[in-house]
Amino acid sequence: MSWTDERIATLKKLWEGGSTASQIAEELGGVSRNAVIGKAHRLGLKSRPSPVKANDKKKPASAAKSKPAPKAPPKKTAPAAAAPAPAPARPAPKNSAQANKRPPSNAVELAATAAGETIPKQPIPNKNPDLPKIVSVGPGGFLRQGPGDQQPPIPPAPPRRLVPAKPSPEIADKTSLLDLSDKVCRWPMGHPGEPDFHFCGADVNPGFPYCVEHCGRAFQAQLPRGSRRPPPPLPFGGPRVR
DNA sequence: CCCTGATTCGC
DNA sequence: GCGAATCAGG
């Protein structure tokens, strides 16, 4: 198998999406886990939480045995030991949203809450920890939910605009499958090609290809270039289950 | 043992 | 550029 543009795109998507190299290799087919990792590094995308590289401790106080890695070559090794890059520990999506509650599937819930309780017309700065932070209400009535809204972003809310989050280019034009129509939610469930692959099928949010709930997942507030948060909502049904 | 990603190096 | 072999941590 060769690395076609499409396969590279899939690799990037899955890699940045947090899939493991094994999962990606299985998804692509015809390549090994090592091939995926090698390719990923060659592409420049790299460094996801790796077990072997988790540590990078500093010894500010007791720096007694800090050595520039003597690196005893057991058999083969290039001596070229460049100065270790400073490599500031990357922001690390410490977003406690994960542990905080459950990330997705809140649109309907929030809507229900909003309907039953009094919603302030103007967002109150920071006085109401009980109510979830509501950014704005979409045209269809669903609540817009920015990627970082589970925990409010630290800096002042940057300007946002809605962009369609295309679930997958592969299944985007498979409307001929099953009985999709403009009346039912086209949100894919599961993985294409698998026996249990299907679409949501719920009543659509008028004007949208998805139901209200999936509109909340498909259309998300996009943060400015600088402050995007990579961790995308798990694609489709999440990681493969086999 | 299993898993993970990182790295090396012959091709 | 590719990826098997190898390394090393969890």
TrEMBL record:
Region listing for Disordered, in residue ranges: 41-176, 222-242
Comp. bias (Low complexity): 61-84
InterPro entries: GcrA
Pfam families reported in the protein's UniProt record: GcrA
Compositional bias ranges of the Pro residues kind: 150-161
Name of protein: GcrA cell cycle regulator
